[in-house]
């Protein structure tokens, strides 16, 4: 390899490393209620996140596998499979098991909250949501991800 090609290869590696470290964090919002989905999308986009959307559990699983979001906000009550079942499937999949999942639900009982954590959710929020607490939690999970070393490809 010539010296100029070698420099280009090193430059390309540095650029891709920089891109991986500085790209906007992507959040998958799984919500079947259109208005809630719009509000969550606008809230996250206004904070600088790229927002992916899914309106049912199977679509969420597919999007998570294909898009590899940095975090998932998961409604529990969905039209096809429950968000808890979707979470279990995601947490048992090598491609998606490390993605933090925050349950966001109108189902508010101690048993549902316990089920959410048992299914693999990393946090739980009851609707109506305290926006600031949710955003602090989202940012906390994403900060932990960005503080972790980036693995070479």
Describe the protein in words.
By secondary structure, this protein is of the alpha/beta class. The chain has one domain (26-147): 3-Layer(aba) Sandwich (Rossmann fold). The protein has helices spanning 3-22, 34-46, 57-67, 83-91, 110-119, 131-147, and strands at 26-30, 50-54, 71-75, 101-105, 123-126. The chain is globular and about 35 Å long. The model is unreliable at 1-20 and 148-153 (pLDDT under 50).
Element-by-element helix/strand order = HEHEHEHEHEH
Q: How much strand content do the residues show?
A: 15-25%
Count the DSSP helices.
6
CATH class: Alpha Beta
Determine the fraction of residues in helical runs and give it as a percent range.
40-55%
* Weakly predicted, low-confidence segments: 1-20, 148-153
Largest sheet report: 5 strands, parallel
Question: How much is the average pLDDT?
Answer: 86
Query: Span from first to last CA?
Result: 21 Å
* CATH fold topology: Rossmann fold
Radius of gyration: 18 Å
With strands numbered from the N-terminus, the spatial order across the biggest sheet is 2-1-3-4-5
How many beta-strand runs?
A: 5
């Amino acid at each position: 390899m010539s010296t100029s090609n070698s420099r280009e290869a090193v430059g390309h590696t540095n650029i891709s490393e920089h891109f991986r470290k500085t790209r906007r964090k992507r959040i998958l919002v799984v919500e079947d209620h259109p208005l809630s989905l719009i509000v969550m999308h606008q809230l996250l986009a206004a904070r600088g996140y790229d927002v992916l959307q899914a309106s049912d559990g199977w679509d969420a699983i597919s999007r998570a596998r294909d898009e590899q979001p940095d975090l998932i906000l998961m409604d529990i009550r969905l039209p096809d499979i429950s968000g808890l079942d979707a979470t279990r499937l995601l947490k048992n999949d090598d491609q998606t098991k490390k993605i933090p999942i925050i349950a966001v639900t109108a189902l508010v009982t101690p048993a549902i909250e316990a089920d959410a954590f048992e299914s693999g959710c990393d946090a739980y929020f009851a609707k109506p949501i305290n926006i600031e607490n949710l955003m602090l939690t989202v940012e906390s999970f994403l900060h932990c991800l960005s503080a972790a070393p980036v693995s070479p490809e």
